[in-house]
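User: Bifunctional NAD(P)H-hydrate repair enzyme. Structure?
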Amino acid sequence: MSDLSDLLLTPAEMAAVDAAAAASGIDSFSLMERAGSATAAAALRLHPGAQRFIVLCGPGNNGGDAYVAARHLQQSGAAVTLFHLGDPSRLKGDAARARAGCALKEQELGHYRPEAGDVVIDGLFGAGLGREVSEEVRALIGRVTEAAIPVLAIDLPSGLDGRTGKVLGAAFRAHNTITFMTRKPGHLLMPGRELCGRLEVFDIGIPARIVRAGASGVIAENTPEAWKGVLPAELLETHKYKRGHLVVFSGDADKTGAARMSAISGLKVGAGLVTIAAPRAAMAANAAHLTAIMLHAIDDEAELQSWLSDKRLQTFVLGPGFGIGARARGFASALAKRRLVLDADGISSFKDEPQQLYDLFQGEPRLVLTPHEGEYSRLFPDIAGDGALGKVDKAVAAARRANAAIVYKGADTVIASPDGRALINTNAPAWLATAGSGDVLAGIIGGLLAQGLPAFEAAAAGVWLHGEAAHRAGKGLTAEDLAVAVAPL
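Assistant: Predicted structure:
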């Protein structure tokens, strides 16, 4: 992987980088030659036993890369059969030159019938596809998928949107994908991430300064580099209140476990003090399970308002196991001037009047919302229903509307800021999807907020640390195991 592996460029940004490289005097065909030769080398390395390489050439530069790959494969002595989409005589520029340099006889795409021992090299569309694939391509994808033919995709499996990771009608499921210079959001967003198979990034020689200049930096992968600069410095001598006091609200006596998961996680991630604020009827149930975490009785909004006269109380988690309804809305209203992670029942309590929530938290962002797909749809139904938007688009739109950091949960969790920044998380293992996992995440984010991290960075760091804890806990983890495995960076 190149030293640009930290970047994500949209297809439009990558096209601009290609144009800038050409404008700087770099021979664009030499870049295509390197891309095609890298593809051929990957095909030979990954599939040494292939009986026949089926090279699919599309109508643009992705097809040009495929023609170059076909030429190199033939010169290596491999059996190669070439299929084209559309009229290849209409190719222009580098793609036309690549076709002219390939001596193989072409066939129309619809003529391909899979055979045992085939390996498909997909050079139909790449990352720039912006419309649904044709019936001809859909049928081809169906035949290849049904026959379980291995696919090596050039840039991105054809049928995937490189910006959103969405399937545009149908898409190949690649065993491997080779892309150039840097990744696209569609490589990380679902279902694109799964359909890419194993991803390799190959440096074809565009100077890093040109690539970095073309990257907006608005969308990136969620790694420590995105937020470690705001982590609190570890001091040998510090007061516990300087490391923050996190308050987690407990539900009723029979629903106290979720709050404890959040509280333990907040403590483990470094908060100096953690208190569970519980109804009096739930104090005994909580006390039976707590040692390092304090307890405070709060039955109603009036008691909460009185307690908030202590200005050291600045950071709260509301929602896990709390119950849905007016009490949750009242508590959120009382906390409007503080930092708040609103999760689970807290989010659902505002499903009928989401604007009431957004109006409470204006000014400097201090609210973190952690919706899964269903909760997101309840809070932002119009945005959720817009089929033209990808997950990053939806997360950013929600963040702007709510003036909050949004953690749009899922296998491809996206963290978004009201200022338009978005991070795509990739380190969460599949076994993290377990009951209570979200309670742990809310506590981690709360613990980071309590230590002074801004809302967006606390949310992003929390999601990443959550994934790392899941790796430490291992397969078969429970939420209890996950909370124990939480650790600061």
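Residues 224-485 form a domain with the UDP-N-acetylmuramoyl-L-alanine:D-glutamate ligase fold (CATH 3.40.1190.20). The longest strand covers residues 52-57.
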